[in-house]
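Our collaborator T.R. sent over the components below with a one-line note: 'Predict the complex.' Nothing else. No constraints on interfaces, no templates requested, no preferences about which chain binds where. So this is a plain run: every listed entity goes in together, and whatever single assembly comes back becomes the starting point for the next discussion.
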Amino acid sequence: MSPIPLRIDSVVKRFGEVTAVAGISLDVQERTCLGLLGPNGAGKSTLIRSIAGRIRLDSGSIQVFGQPADSAAARAELGWAPQELALYPLLTCRENLEAFGQYQGLRGKALRGAIQWCIGWAALADRADATVKSLSGGMRRRVNMAAGLIHRPRLVLLDEPTAGVDPQARNRIFEMVEALRSEGTTVIYTTHYMEEAERLCDRIAIVDHGKVIALGSKEELVAQSFGGRSDVLMRFASNVQNGAEWAASRGGTVEDGVGHFSVERPTDIAGLLDAAARDGLEVIDVTLRRPNLESVFLQLTGRGLRP
Amino acid sequence: MIAVIVRTGFKALRRDRGAFLLSFILPIAFFSIFATIMGGMGSSGTARVSVLVVDEDRTAVSERLVRGLRREPSLAATTAPEAKKGQPAPPEYTAATAEAAVKQGVAPAALIIPQGFGANPVAFGPQTGRQPIRILHDSSDPVAAQVVAGLLQKVVMTSLPDTMAGVGMKYFDQASGGLTAEQRKDIESNLSKFHDQMEQRDQEGSAPAADSANNAGGLVAVDIRDVVGENKRSPMVAFSAAGIGVMFLLFTASASAGSLLSEAECGALDRILSARVSMTTLLAGKMTYCTLLAFLQLTLMFLWGAAVFHLELFTHLPGFLLMTAATSFAVASFGMLLATVSRTRGQQAAISTLLILTMSAIGGSMFPRFLMPEAMKTVGLFTFNAWAIDGYTKVFWRDEPVSHLAPQVAVLIGSGMVLFLIARRFARKWEYQ
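Returned assembly:
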């Protein structure tokens, strides 16, 4: 039996007083796409860089296809598109791909073939000979991804690949990731956008304070956090003064004039509306919503701003 | 509103260490360096002109002149090479060995007192029919020969006043239609006493009155000859190319090595190191790139010098290639060290500007080292500029063989290797976190 693409075992990494990763263990099976979600400073990037072999762990181990993450064998199997645009801005797309391909040991025909594949995969044919500096933000992101994958690794780390790009470019990146998945590549995908994780990932790990606090498919995570309950969003009229107290007395919260409640069954919404009418609160809009990944995320990590 | 803008500006400046350094530290550093070079840190700092003295005449007059030259505070006159520890004193300079020493750069000038000088040392009129004192000089120091010639006239006046008086009386005797026997006897008696006083003063070693420097108008015949640059078409071009070239090389190497910091800041370094590239390989690659870039830059500069300023590049190719390779390697290692020591590109830019301008000032890129005080010359030896300029001067100016470049090449390559090893050590911060 071939080793699994990624095995993270009790990994701990501290930076001075701060524990960035506090004992994470995780297995990623072949051909899956694992989404890593977490608030800023949760430890996602440290975990990604640890997998890429760029961080010396305080304890624990990471294996890529059975090899230590910082070994040459693991590096050959792993591709990494960092969050930053890790490119040479004054070189063209083709020249960047050529350089990063050579850093991965590709030469001659293999290199030329890999560059062609990257240009096609990232839809860069029209601008292949333009300098990276002259490209749009979306195109730069695509070159950044292509440069990390030029050696066709079996495990790919994509660290917020859609940060700061427009919806069209984002959609193109989704298609690129889906193309990778259809070829059987295992993908680790970090993002702040829940809909991206819902669309692309089979499994999702929510990371906070250096730990995985939830792991499973979207449905499993929703079921773990909310069971069969649904969200009710109730917008109050602007003259309502005591909405927050009223919502709190019924287990809800109010944010920007909208009450958030959780109900066991959809029909329970009628009771809420009756109570509001009885207490003289004018309700102008009601929405019944099945909890989604964002609900789970906020439920687990809290609504408060992180420092 | 203006106050807010001013306050904001000062707050930002205070937190930008690089800008702070360039605004306040660099001007003070430069002011101090140039003030020291110009002798502003005390009168004792002024450089003495080295001169090798050869006495072919060996008469009492010539020996007194030699003693006078040795006593002259503005000259460092020597008659023989310095004895090495534990070895017998070397023989005194001859005209030939002094000329060779000037060509090798031991001193910028040699003064040869010819045979027959003592018989007819000074003249107040035309200098015909007399053996002139020869000054052999190296015109890479354009000041030395003039200073030596001027001071020679002064020393003649202060060391041989009796001789001058005697010659003066001869002129008077001829011009006045002849002295009486009694007058001549009195004068000769007084001149003899004067001569004895001078001899006694010489024996006691007391300094002559130093008030006649303003009358240095050709008492002794002097023949000045450039023994190093006499056949050169453009004497100072090589010096300029080396001095300016090395300074800009340091800037270029610093900027190109700084790409390491840019790559670290944008994450490219992480990506490269997560591929099949080790830190040592990466640094070696950057070092090679910086060295080649510096080599091309210097080559271009010297080619330009050859094309436009008649620099004799193609007749000195081996020495040029060796010096250029060594200099390029050294400055590249300096750039690598700066890049690895600095935390940000901005910090590196500020530190490199400060260091490079300082090194260039004391190393001779901006101001010839031969005009600097001795202490400053010694400090200059801690810069690449000084060693590179010395090496190029040997190649283009003194026409020395390639083997004579060994000290310069050894220092440049050796210190380059040491700096590279230190840079490798500092680069560990990027290897793993």
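Summary for T.R.: Chain A has two domains: 6-223, 230-290.
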